[in-house]
Amino acid sequence: MATVILKKGEGRTLKAGGSWIYDNEIDRIEGDFEQGDIISVQDFDAYPMGVGFINTRSKITVRMLSRGIHDPKLIDDAYLAKRVRDAWEYRKKTVDTSSCRVIFGEADFLPGIVVDKFSDVLVVESLALGIDRLKGRILESLCSVLSEEGIRIRGIYERSDAPVRRKEGMSPVKGFIGEPFDTEVEIIENGIRFLVDVADGQKTGFFLDQKYNRLAIRSFCKGARVLDCFTHTGAFALNAAAAGALEVTGVDVSETAIAQAEKNARLNGFLLKEDKPHGMKAELNATDPGEEKSCGKGGDSAALSFKAADVFDLLPELEKKGEQYDVVILDPPAFTKSREATRKAAKGYREINYRGLKLVKDGGFLVTCSCSHFMPQALLEKTIQEAARSAHKRLRQVEFRTQSADHPILWSYGNMPGQQDNDENSYYLKFYIFQVRDAFS
Fold first, then answer.
1. What confidence tier does 273 reach under pLDDT thresholds 50, 70, 90?
2. CA-to-CA separations, 353 to 219, 356, 382, in angstroms, rounded
3. What is the rounded CA–CA span in Å between residue 198 and residue 161?
4. Staple partner for 373: which of 87, 257, 363, 428, CB 3.0–4.6 Å?
5. What number is the average pLDDT over the span 398-411?
6. How open is the CA angle 188-194-200, to the nearest 5 degrees?
7. How far does CA 425 lie from the centroid of its chain?
8. 170 contacts: CB under 8 Å, gap ≥ 6
């Protein structure tokens, strides 16, 4: 059984509540081990620090499983089952569990693994060697816990296809765990039906972290002209339409995503512009009898359309045409995947917010966010303010939000949300709603 001994003065992040030990913090490793084994950790003076799994091929050499347990043999099936049960009980108290993130890595004290539940399907992403070896036992425990609630999981799909696995000495993996099943899964979120492609959609198939942020935009979308940029599969756009927007345009560079957004719109009974004969009214509730209503009370359908285009190219074109919107939504992909690229990312956020602000009517609303883990909140706010100044707009903050509670933010001493985040901080999504006023109005 191996033991990792820290250098004197190292392990500061661990002692502050973190979960990772980097290679340069380790003085020596005593005993034999295989990569991915669970080992014990001691400070330089032999003080016990807990247990975690080891992989010397990764800069993150140890990922901690427990600070309170000091014998690796105690990380058994009962221990893993308790971690899984705790994660599920937390979700039951905080979110709608029909579709949610059930396990969120370090924030659920199971480092390196993410499990999303889409109705009766699980999608798992495993990013670390040690947790990969425990993956089957974790999923077995999760299915058992869910079955106690009367939830029968009909299939599990693995989306461990992120390139970061190579840093752990592992190849990307994608495919069924167990029997094959139909990988297009229907879910209902905020009363709206979506088809989730768990096999080929982005990440695990659908961005669950924005669930309640999408709901938050509805109050000011009624009767509005809405532009939803980086619409992906249409989630914000359909929430705007369901709220009673007069016109909604969703834009994304991916033609595949746009096709899925159009499919989702039709699934909810919306007629797209190209489908709708001139002067025809469409019912919002084109659902089967006895089925949950998708989009609130019936009425006239929004003028809804989706367009495959590069947002950075399209927004200047719309400005030249003199287009103006009551609501502009900016939900871009992460502009940076590393701390070193943060400055370049800030330029991207400044540009996209500047272009978006130029299209908002006086008194309208800008919805803008960043899912870049390495984009600190303070820098993002500075970037948005600079964009507003350049666009000659004043911003009145309506609301600040973050990721939904099924993606919990684990605080640690000296590494709080809003400060410069370290690599393992679970806080990443910053979401703002502003009312936009002309600077000289």
1. confident
2. 22, 5, 12
3. 12
4. 428
5. 95
6. 130
7. 14
8. 129, 132, 160
- Two tokens, residue 189: 């979120």
- Which helix (H) or strand (E) segment is 5 a member of? strand 3-6
Catalytic residue among 229, 295, 369, 371: 371
DSSP output for 414-426: TB-TTS---TT-S
Task: Tell me what pLDDT residue 202 has.
Answer: 85
Instruction: Give the pLDDT band (50/70/90) at residue 285.
Output: very low
Per-residue model confidence (pLDDT) at position 372:
86
- Helix, strand, or coil here: 406? coil
> In the chain, pLDDT over 70 holds for what percent of residues?
90
Total-model pTM? 0.90
Is 221 known to be catalytic? no
- Of 131, 92, 155, 124, the closest CA to residue 406 belongs to 92
Picking from 248, 251, 263, the residue whose alpha carbon sits closest to that of residue 300 is 248
Cα separation, 404 vs 46, in Å, equals 40
**Nearest of 235, 232, 241, 318 to residue 273 by alpha carbon:** 241
Domains of the chain, first to last: 3-74 (2.30.130.10), 77-181 (3.30.750.80), 187-438 (3.40.50.150)
Q: Which residues pair with 155 in a beta bridge?
A: 121
Structure tokens at 341: 């690229």
DSSP string across 265-312: HHHTTPPBTTTS-TT----S----TTSPPSSSS--PPPEEEEEE--HH
Which residue, chain included where needed, has tokens 């000091």? 70
Tokens of 257: 């995503």
